Structure prediction request, 707 residues.
Amino acid sequence: MNLRSFRLRIALLSTILAGTALIGFSGVAWRLIYGAKVSRLDSRLENQIRRMARPLPPTLQPSIADDLQRNLDAESTDSVAWQVLDADGKPLQQSDHWLAEFDPPAVPPFQREQRSLTPLTPRRDRPFERRRPPPNLSSHSVTRRTDQGNWRIAAASTPQGQVAIAVSLQTITQEMGAIRNIFLIAIPGTLLVVAIGAWVLSGSALHPIRQLTAVMQKLTVTGLDQRVALGQTDVEFAELIQVFNQMLERLERSFMQASRFSADAAHELKTPLAILQGELELTLQQAAPGSALQQSLSSLLDEVRRLSGIVRKLLLLSLADAGQMGVHRVQLDLSEMLVVMVEDLELVAPHLTVQTEIDHELNVWGDRDLLNQVLQNLMSNAIKYNLPDGWIRIEARQKSASVQITITNASQPMSPEERDRLFDRFYRGDPARTRTIEGIGLGLSLSREIVLAHGGNLAIAQPSGDYTTFTLILPIHLLH
Amino acid sequence: MYILFVEDEAKIASFVQAGLKEQGFVVDYCDNGDQADQQALEQDYDVIVLDIMVPGKDGLAILKHLRRSGRNTPVILLTARNELDDRLEGLNLGADDYITKPFFVEELVARIHAVVRRSVGDRQNLLTVGALTLDRITREVSAHGQTVELTTREFNLLEYLMRSPGRVLTRTQILEHVWGYDFNPSTNVVDVCIQRIRKKIDLADNSSWIESVRGVGYLFRKTETGV
Prediction:
């Protein structure tokens, strides 16, 4: 599970919070309900104790259990028990299944109230009243655990001694069990609803961010000069967009500066280079053929050309960066260009085995000079980074709406890091291996820019052995 | 051949003019656009070499005006800044070719010949030096009466050398003309190519048409008989 997902964390946290609250509430509710039930039982017990406060004639004794069972809503007569003690604490009367474990709570001795002391005179209008009102006594209750479950035992002092009634808590336990079961079903159910709700809600809360991300992705691909539109965005995200736009602006500015710098520098270098080259060329013609002067002029001229080449590439790259690489498209026969280059291979690198599979009339709309440069760059790389007595394989074929050219050459195995950096500017591969190889490391990055400007792609294939494959894809039709 | 050369950078103008005159061109030089615009219409030049960035009317405007006036004089653009955009616009406006600074005057000369040839047709398609004849249209070469098969590169190289007999061309100049800017496996390719051409066109007992200039490059031998 990916806990770095904001959405997942929100959903999880909401569920945990809701769960804790729910469990807490149900715990408290459970206790309160239990307490309420027990205290109602207690007051019933107290009533029964009051009724039994006066000594009962032995004839009535068997019906006491029935009485208690009825009045206390007990399950059966076995669920109730009672005991009457005399003033000395000796059992006077008790039900058959009174257990010693019931151990009624200690109660203070009975105190006769003033009111209850007034002599009771038989009233004339109720001559048959058998009982006097029960004495106003208060009971104490306690819960005891026995072999037959929990019992609630209430006891109170009476004028004669002490009365205790025990009732099994089985009914209440059953009721509480039912309530607990309801909780056990309801809480996970509720939590599930909360979790789903939180997931959906956080998803919809993140929706604008996802939208924003999509827009930003598109922007960075298409160009730094664009901005995210504020439009109908929520207030919370408007700020984010503004910050992003400002960042884009800064980025664009520094990018433009860097790009303009190299363009300007390249341009400024061109004029002196042109003068240098022209003067050298002129002087070279005037020098005696083969003289030392002419030789040194010639080697100077080579260096000037090398400089010019670098300047030209830098300028092209800076144009590409600024998205201003102009492509003069004409119909080109790539097959023909490739065939001529294969002829060159035989001239330049007769030690290499060259295999070709070039289809005829692979026509594309492209810039002759620029594409020529790309192909030459790929070819010369294939020669430069080849193995001694290695091989080169060139394939070119049409694939639906594009032409695909693959140039494969034997090479030393390349690490993934090296491969990733291959299109970086001024990257020239492992210095230990490439020190003796000419070049400045601009060719591939420029080639890729040129191909991209043509709406194509240039990539290095995953090498799985001692060879390197470059795949060049160019669309046949004009992309406009 | 009568050429109008428009360029504001004096030093560049100086060596280009010198180079062109040396190769037998008659050059009118002009350092601002307005004057060049006027001159281009007044005179009947064989070729106009136009720098794009000149004071006054810029090169592209001059070209546009020229073409609007119905003149088909071949135009070669010299570009420096934003070369690609300028080149693109120039070619769209009807320029015949372009060349980027820095450039070899030798290359400019080759381009001038090429555009002139294209504009006047087949008149100059045959290049003959002694017993060696090169047909630019059919791309056929015959040496001592025998037709010789040359590859594209070999043909272009031979043509480049034959066009200016007696002039030393450096390996780099040849490489750039025949192969293009960025062909950089090694200048060795020129030597190999020259060897192959020699084998094909030279008679076994004869000394070579193409002379090596040690440490510099090659030159095509001027024949005693002349052209």
User: Anything to note?
Assistant: Helices of chain B lie at 10-22, 33-42, 59-68, 83-93, 105-120, 152-163, 171-179, 188-201. Residues 2-121 of chain B form a domain with the Rossmann fold fold (CATH 3.40.50.2300). The longest helix of chain B spans residues 105-120. Chain B is about 40% helix and 20% strand.
